[in-house]
Write a structure and sequence with these properties.
single chain, mainly alpha, 2 domains, five-stranded mixed β-sheet, 5 strands
């Protein structure tokens, strides 16, 4: 019950608090870690609650598992047909949610893999490797740069981008895309996208998906501007975003589902590039990192604490 209450509390408060936190804007890397700590904590707590209910570790007399007792007694038929039916409904709902998550994951993985293979085949025919850029160049009048997800993540840039951006702007854009590849941002987005597709009505997953799409772009901007002038990336962002907004006819299906340079909130990114926020101090970063770690480990620590303090996991013995 403690784990279940914890999962409900975190899933309710996180979308309201974390999405509005100012430090996330200043330190997107910590923000990404915080959102995944929230998701991990909620999923671990929910799974731990189910495990503790199905297979309790203790069987003493402490009255802390009334819900478990009711479920077991209902399944035995002690509350009549209605109680047994309710117990089986709860079991079926749990199984249905598990099956839905697994089936959605398999479906999305297959679709993403098929799109990725098709895109790689197109690049093999229509693209050319540019060692001086460290990228694959494709013929397309639309200025764009993106990363093809999967093994050996490949940075791709169009001829339109090379023609419309100057050398410094191209270098900044490619640095942004390499940051996506190095940070495995496609995997970060795939994980939360799976949860969002499996449970589209759950506010936590919807907000987490939107926020992580925003934060990975900020993080890639930070990595790129560590070596390149922010104004160059800002100019490139304006050029590509404007072209994408005006010329929809040149958008190709192959660009769908990749991590592109124009992702996220372009206006917010532009403001952040031109007016960089003050970085967090070491003490702030250390405190936030400690809090994020504690949140992520809280469910596992709770389960472990039952072993050290058995009274926390005791359930009243049921008559045979």
């Amino acid at each position: 019950m403690h784990l279940l209450l914890f999962a409900v509390a975190v899933s309710t408060l996180a979308p309201r608090v974390l999405a509005k936190a100012g430090w996330v804007y200043r330190a997107p890397r910590l923000g990404i870690a915080a959102w995944y700590a929230v998701l991990g904590a909620v999923l671990t707590a929910a799974a731990g609650a189910v495990l503790a209910a199905v297979a309790p570790w203790q069987a003493a007399g402490a009255p802390v598992c009334m819900a478990w007792r009711w479920c077991v007694q209902a399944a035995r038929g002690e509350f009549g047909l209605l109680g047994r039916s309710a117990a089986f409904v709860v079991l079926l709902v749990g199984l249905a949610l598990t099956v839905r998550l697994l089936s959605t994951g398999v479906r999305l993985a297959r679709a993403a893999s098929a799109r990725r293979r098709a895109h790689v085949r197109i690049l093999a025919v229509a693209g050319r490797t540019a060692p001086e850029l460290g990228a694959t160049v494709v013929e397309n009048a639309q200025p764009a740069a993106y990363v093809v997800a999967g093994h050996g993540r490949r940075v791709v840039v169009t001829t339109g981008a090379l023609q419309q951006l100057d050398g410094d702007e191209v270098a900044a854009v490619l640095a942004h895309e390499r940051a996506h590849a190095a940070g495995r941002h496609d995997l970060l987005l795939d994980g939360v996208r799976l949860l969002h597709h499996a449970f589209p009505r759950m506010a936590l997953f919807a907000v987490a998906h939107a926020q992580l799409c925003r934060l990975v772009e900020m993080r890639a901007d930070d990595v790129a501007t560590a070596r390149h002038a922010p104004i160059n990336l800002a100019r490139a962002l304006v050029t590509m975003a404007t072209a994408n907004a005006i010329d929809h006819s040149s958008r190709t299906p192959a660009l769908i589902g990749v991590v592109a340079a124009t992702g996220g909130d372009a206006a917010e990114r532009l403001h952040r590039l031109l007016t960089p926020p003050a970085p967090l101090g070491r003490a702030q970063r250390a405190g936030l990192a400690a809090g994020i770690t504690m949140l992520a480990l809280a469910p596992a620590v709770t389960l472990l604490a039952v072993q050290v303090f058995p009274v926390l996991g005791m359930c009243p013995a049921l008559p045979s």
